[in-house]
Design a protein that fits this description.
Chain A: Belongs to the ABC transporter superfamily. Drug exporter-1 (DrugE1) (TC 3.A.1.105) family. With about 325 residues, chain A is of the alpha/beta class. In chain A, about 35% of the residues lie in helices and about 25% in strands. Chain B is an all-alpha fold. Classes of the chains: A alpha/beta (about 325), B mainly alpha (about 250). At the A-B interface, α2, β6 and α3 of A face α1 and α6 of B. Bound molecules: adenosine-5'-triphosphate and magnesium ion.
Chain lengths: ~325, ~250
C-alpha cells in the first residue's frame, strides 16, 4: 500500500551567510502492506513527522519517490489525497467549534453533500463514542477525547491508508489503551495504518512491524519480536545508587563496573545508561552470581539488580548507542 | 464550480465561528464608534472654512474616511488568524483533503470582508442620529468599494504573514505600514488640508484614491471620475495581491 524509496527532506534555515541546511530525513526506504499497522519508532527530532508529512502531500520531498495505494506521490498528489487520511501531531481543531461541526465540515471538504456529511458525522460520533460531548465546545474536551476526535476527523471519508502522527502522545494510560483499540478497529475495517510513536510499548503491542528511525535514517526494521530476537539472551540492569563509598561521586561506580565487566566472557556487551549499567548476557540466571562476585571482589557495591527479556529500547541502544528512554 | 463551493464552505465555517463569538465582534466595533462619536465633532470645527457648517457635513466627510480606516486595519490584522490556524494544524488538516487551496484562503478573506461590511453598516446606523444623510444607492456602492478594500488589505496581510511566518514581525510590519498609509489617505482629516508635499506623496497612495472616491460617494457625486478611478485601483491591486497570496499559500504544497 505504501512504498517509499530514498525519501529525503532537507530544510534551509536562516538567510544569507547564516544559512544552513537541516537534514531532517536522509533517505528512508520502507514498504507497508495492505491491512498492516506499521510504526515509526524514534526519539524527538528523528524525522518521523517530516516523513509522514511528505507522504501526506503536505511537504514536497527533496528527493526520493513513493507510491501510496498505487498512486505516485509526486505526480498525482491530488489522487493521493483522495485515498489517505492524516492526523497531525498537533490537534488541528478550533477551540470554539464542536466535534459535530468539524466532522460535517471535514466530510464536506471531501466533496460530499450536506446531508451525506451529516450522516457521516453521525456515524463517526457513534463509532468513536463521541456522543457525550459532540455538541460541546472543543475547548472543554479532555486530551483523550480531543485525540479521538482528531482520528475521527482523519477517517471520516474511509480512506484506504491512514497516517497517524503520535496518536497517543501525552495521553494517560487508559486513554492510550482506548486509542489502541480504535486503531485496531480501523485496521479490522480494512485500513492500512502507518503511525509514528516514541513509546516502546506502543510500538511493541500495537504495530505489526516497526521501523526504528534515528537522525533521519532507518536503523532497524522488522516485527517487534524479530527485532528483539536480534538481541539474544537476557538483559541485566545494575543500578549504582548512593551505596558506594561516601567520597565516591555518583558515576564512578558505573565507570569502574563497566571496566570490570566489559571483558568478562559471559557479557556480550555493556552500555552505561542513566547512572545504571545495562549488560547483555546469554542467561541472567547464571550471569548474576558471576557479576556479583566480580564486583564485590573489587569492592564495588552494586545497587538494585534487575533481569528482563530484551525490549525495543535494547534494540535502539544496540543500533545507536543511546537509549530512547533518556 | 469547485472553487466557489469550497470557498463558500470555508467561509461558512469561519463566519460560523465568528458568530459564536459575539463579544469579539462587539469589541471590534468599539474603536470605530469611539472615533465616530469623539473625533468627528472636531472636524466640524476644523473644516468650517471648507463648507462643513453642520454635523451632517462633518459626518459626511468623516464616515467615508472611517470606512477606509476600518477596511485597511480590519484586513491588515487578518494574518494573525491565518498564522494561528497554521500553527494549530487546522490548515494542514484541510490541505490533506481535496479541498481547493485557493478556496481555503479566499473563504477566510471573505469572512473578513463580510465582518467589515457588517461593521460599516453598524457605523452608518450609529452616525444617522448625528445627522449623517447619504443616498442609499451611493451608500451601497461605498459598501462594495469597502469590500474590495478589505479584500486587498486582507490579502496584503496574508502575503506578509506567509512570508514572515511570525506574529511579532507581522504586528510590527502591519503597524509601520498601516499607520502612514491611513494618514496619507486622509482618513482622519481630508488631504485638501494637507501641505503640498504630503499631497504629492499621497498621490501614490492607492488608499488615498479610495478615500476620495468614498467621500465623493457620500457627497452624492457618484459620477465623479475619482469614484471609478479609486474602485479600479482597488480592484486591480486586490486581484494582484490575492493572486500572490494564493501562490505563497500553495508554495510548499505540491
Ligand atoms: N520547517 C522546518 N525547518 C527547519 N527544520 C525543521 C523543520 N521541520 C522540522 N525540522 C527539523 O527536522 C528534524 C526532524 O523533525 P521532525 O519533526 O520530523 O521530528 P520528529 O521525529 O517528528 O520528532 P518529535 O518526536 O519531536 O515529533 C528536526 O531536527 C527538526 O528540528
Ligand atoms: Mg513529530
Amino acid at each position: 500500500m505504501i512504498e517509499a524509496t530514498g525519501l529525503r527532506k532537507s530544510y534551509r534555515v536562516g538567510r544569507g551567510r547564516g544559512a544552513s541546511t537541516v537534514e531532517a530525513v536522509r533517505g528512508v526506504d520502507f514498504a507497508v502492506r495492505r491491512g498492516e499497522i506499521v510504526g515509526f519508532l524514534g526519539p524527538n527530532g528523528a524525522g518521523k513527522s517530516t516523513t509522514l508529512r511528505m507522504l501526506a502531500t503536505l511537504i514536497r520531498p527533496t528527493g526520493g519517490v513513493a507510491t501510496i495505494a498505487g498512486v505516485d506521490l509526486l505526480r498525482a498528489p491530488g489522487e493521493v489525497r483522495r485515498r489517505i487520511g492524516f492526523v497531525a501531531q498537533a490537534s488541528g481543531t478550533y477551540d470554539d467549534s464542536t466535534a459535530r461541526r468539524d466532522l460535517v465540515l471535514q466530510a464536506r471538504m471531501h466533496g460530499v453533500t450536506k446531508a451525506v456529511a451529516q450522516e457521516l458525522a453521525r456515524s463517526a460520533i457513534r463509532a468513536f463514542q463521541l456522543d457525550d460531548f459532540a455538541d460541546r465546545k472543543i475547548r472543554t474536551y479532555s486530551g483523550g477525547q480531543r485525540r479521538r476526535l482528531d482520528v475521527a476527523l482523519g477517517v471520516i471519508h474511509a480512506p484506504q491508508v491512514m497516517f497517524l502522527d503520535e496518536p497517543t502522545a501525552g495521553l494517560d494510560p487508559p486513554s492510550r489503551v482506548r486509542m489502541w483499540q480504535e486503531v485496531r478497529r480501523l485496521r479490522d475495517e480494512g485500513m492500512t495504518i502507518f503511525l509514528t510513536t516514541h513509546y516502546l510499548d506502543e510500538a511493541d503491542s500495537l504495530c505489526d512491524r516497526v521501523s526504528i528511525i534515528d537522525a533521519g535514517r532507518i536503523v532497524a526494521e522488522g516485527t517487534p519480536s524479530a527485532l528483539k530476537r536480534e538481541i539474544s539472551g537476557d538483559v541485566i540492569t545494575i543500578g549504582f545508587g548512593t551505596t558506594g563509598a561516601a567520597e565516591d561521586p555518583v558515576g564512578t561506580g558505573v565507570q569502574t563496573a563497566t571496566k570490570l565487566l566489559a571483558d568478562q566472557p559471559y557479557v556480550h556487551s555493556c552500555e552505561p545508561v542513566d547512572g545504571a549499567l545495562r549488560l547483555y548476557v546469554d542467561s541472567a540466571a547464571t550471569a548474576i552470581p558471576q557479576v556479583m562476585r566480580t564486583l564485590l571482589d573489587r569492592g564495588v557495591e552494586p545497587g538494585a539488580i534487575e533481569a528482563r527479556r530484551p525490549s525495543l529500547d535494547d534494540v535502539f541502544l544496540a543500533k545507536t548507542g543511546r537509549s530512547l528512554e533518556e | 464550480m469547485k472553487l466557489v463551493r469550497d470557498t463558500w464552505l470555508v467561509f461558512q465555517q469561519e463566519a460560523g465561528l465568528m458568530v459564536r463569538n459575539p463579544v469579539m465582534v462587539a469589541f471590534s466595533l468599539a474603536q470605530p464608534i469611539t472615533y465616530l462619536v469623539l473625533f468627528a465633532p472636531f472636524l466640524k470645527v476644523v473644516m468650517v472654512d471648507r463648507g462643513a457648517s453642520s454635523y451632517a457635513d462633518a459626518y459626511r466627510i468623516y464616515v467615508p474616511g472611517l470606512f477606509v480606516a476600518m477596511g485597511l486595519f480590519g484586513g491588515l490584522f487578518a494574518g494573525y488568524g491565518l498564522l494561528s490556524a497554521l500553527r494549530a494544524g487546522i490548515i494542514d488538516r484541510c490541505r490533506v483533503t481535496p479541498v481547493s487551496r485557493t478556496g481555503l484562503l479566499l473563504g477566510r478573506a471573505l469572512m473578513h470582508v463580510c465582518l467589515n461590511v457588517v461593521q460599516a453598516v453598524v457605523v452608518t446606523l450609529v452616525a444617522l442620529p448625528f445627522g449623517l444623510r447619504v443616498h442609499l444607492g451611493n451608500l451601497l456602492v461605498s459598501y462594495a468599494l469597502l469590500a474590495v478594500m478589505v479584500l486587498l488589505s486582507t490579502s496584503i496581510s496574508y502575503d506578509i504573514a506567509l512570508l514572515v511566518r511570525n506574529e511579532n514581525s507581522l504586528g510590527v510590519l502591519v503597524n509601520t505600514v498601516g499607520q502612514p498609509v491611513s494618514l496619507l489617505a486622509g482618513v482622519l482629516i481630508p488631504l485638501v488640508l494637507a501641505p503640498v508635499w504630503i499631497q504629492r506623496v499621497a498621490f501614490w497612495n492607492p488608499f488615498a484614491w479610495a478615500t476620495d472616491g468614498m467621500r465623493a460617494l457620500f457627497t452624492g457625486q457618484i459620477l465623479q471620475t475619482v469614484v471609478w478611478q479609486g474602485a479600479l485601483i482597488m480592484v486591480g491591486l486586490a486581484a494582484a495581491s490575492l493572486f500572490w497570496s494564493s501562490r505563497l499559500f500553495n508554495r510548499e504544497v505540491s
